[in-house]
Write a structure and sequence with these properties.
2 copies of one chain form a homodimer.
Chain A (H helix, E strand, L loop, with lengths): L1 E9 L3 E8 L4 E8 L6 H17 L3 E9 L3 E2 L4 E3 L9 E2 L1 H5 L8 E4 L1 H12 L8 E6 L3 E7 L2 E2 L36 H14 L16 H9 L3 H25 L3 E5 L7 H14 L9 E4 L7 H14 L7
Parallel strand pairs in A: 1-4, 4-8, 9-12, 12-13
Antiparallel strand pairs in A: 1-2, 2-3, 5-6, 6-7, 9-10, 10-11
């Protein structure tokens, strides 16, 4: 029987799950709706059923279940006031889910922490003890590994780089404050930057024909590829803000490498070049030339499943991991 | 025989050393010159001799030797390009010192990391797994404990909060960059702030009679006690900058408490009140009301010896510590 971990990635719309071994080989995956289950018990029942059906015909032995969810509290196994999930307040997700899998470890953390563990077990951070993973999606998430362990902090909410204040009088953030990093550095952030440039500047741009709701980071990338000056400047500004913020984060955790993951990271040189340049220019001299800025080494289509499964391998199956 | 640790605090002018047990009881201390020894071998010889003389008549058994020094590299046991010490380049301090104490662990780290361990073993952080110690001296140092371990990072230089950029166009820093936190928040920083206020404002102040070289943080404190408006404002500004920077640091390491240690921290309410207020006002909502801002609980006269000794207790004598 092949030892496997079950990874579950709970998103606002759908929940994906999959079965992988310590080397990253997949043994099937599936998905169910999240939004369609206002009742958490119904959701867990159908999720557990779908997982059981998935593994019943495979020659596998599950070592444990790793879960990624927004606002997840690793220590308590709860999901707390997640704005995009249908279940309100504090949901004791792990405790409730245990009735379906009573004899296996079940662990939960947020998406960015799962991404960091995925990078460590399956990606470019193999063998690293100190690194940062920045996930650039609708918002900006981050997971820090220090001394070979996930940095969780006192209440399990460490690694919220997206809400570092870069400008106290800056853009309004969903958290109720102003000038958080993710108001500039995220898919939404670059869109806001582009709209600010459309307002400030007079250059012609194909993006002047697109509404705020229609505009996406991908469209800005396509315009940049064609040499659109405002799209190029939006990427340059995004990278500058990210590079500066990372230079400050380096001072606190002294990482060997920083990995960029997610939608914006796919823009390649447009985001990596300015980020790397401003990171380097703003580093304390002792750190210059020493911090690697890298794209994530985890295959993107599978990253959420691999990351949540890594939560199990790191804690409960360290002996099975190929280093 | 009482088990003890030897703590050594290497400063630019003098080196203090002392013998303490796991409960913090002292068994003698002494000091030798640092500045008087351009040759590291002579320095180590006389330091080892002084330590041997100190312990020879005591009923003690040294468990190990902990050393605090500027620019110390924990992993390699070296002191690297310390501007205020007489020995230039990379000094393999631990390797060289081992000839005098061949059979005991010898560990070295920077002053702020030693202060953090001192707080954990002997001070207000007893029982805490996640906290920050900020040392406010001529500069600003910081030591982070996460998950019960000192945050050291990849090259051993984690926890350099003093060089976080708070204003990219701000004051020149000794590191060659601009706007580092310690250019505002330190004994030197508050002096620079006061001089800026003397230039900007027209209010009368007794501090207008004092030269830059004569001015100290203590004189600013005394003026504040008498209601001097510029001195009060200098403290308010210092606390605001510190509070804002700490709110960002909280997002990364999620500490239970933040301890302020050193000269400026002795200014009590003048520094704690604005720091606490701006910390709280700038925290992400999830952290509000949860982060304790506290004065160090380590007796100040002894703090450097206790902190460097803690380096040994934490690593080599955990079973002897009273929790």
């Amino acid at each position: 029987m092949k030892k496997v971990a079950i990874g579950i990635d709970i998103g606002g719309t759908n929940t994906a799950f999959g079965v992988v071994d310590a080397a990253g080989n997949g043994y099937g995956q599936g998905r169910i709706s999240t939004a369609g289950y206002p009742n958490i018990d119904d959701f867990q029942h159908d999720l557990a059923l779908a997982i059981s059906e998935l593994i019943q015909d495979e020659e596998v032995e599950p070592v444990g279940i790793g879960i990624g969810a927004p606002n997840a509290d690793f220590y308590r196994g709860t999901i707390v006031d997640a704005p995009n999930l249908p279940w309100k307040g504090t949901v004791p997700f792990v405790e409730k889910f245990r009735r379906f899998f009573p004899s296996r470890p079940i662990r939960i953390t947020n998406d960015a922490n799962a991404a960091a563990l995925g990078e460590m077990i399956y990606g470019g951070a193999r063998g690293m003890q100190n690194f940062i993973v920045v996930t650039l999606g609708t918002g900006l998430g981050s997971g820090f590994v220090t001394g070979g362990e996930l940095l969780l902090g006192h209440s399990g909410f460490a690694g919220e780089l997206g809400h570092v204040t870069v400008d106290p009088t800056g853009r309004m953030c969903g958290c109720g404050r102003r000038g958080c990093l993710e108001t500039c550095v995220s898919a939404t952030g670059i869109k806001r930057t582009l709209f600010q440039l459309l307002a400030d500047r007079t250059e012609s741009s194909e993006l002047r024909d697109i509404s705020y709701h229609e505009l996406t980071a991908e469209l800005i990338f396509c315009a940049a590829e064609k040499g659109d000056p405002l799209a190029l400047e939006a990427f340059a500004y995004t990278g500058e803000q990210l590079g500066r913020a990372l230079a400050n984060a380096v001072l606190i955790t002294d990482p060997e490498a920083i990995f960029l993951f997610g939608g914006l990271a796919r823009a390649g040189k447009y985001i990596f070049e300015p980020t790397g340049r401003h990171l380097e220019a703003n580093l304390l001299p002792a750190f210059r030339g020493k911090i690697k800025l890298l794209p994530s080494g985890v295959p993107e289509g599978n990253a959420a499943i691999l990351g949540t499964a890594a939560l199990i391998w790191h804690r409960d199956g360290a002996d099975l991991i190929e280093r």
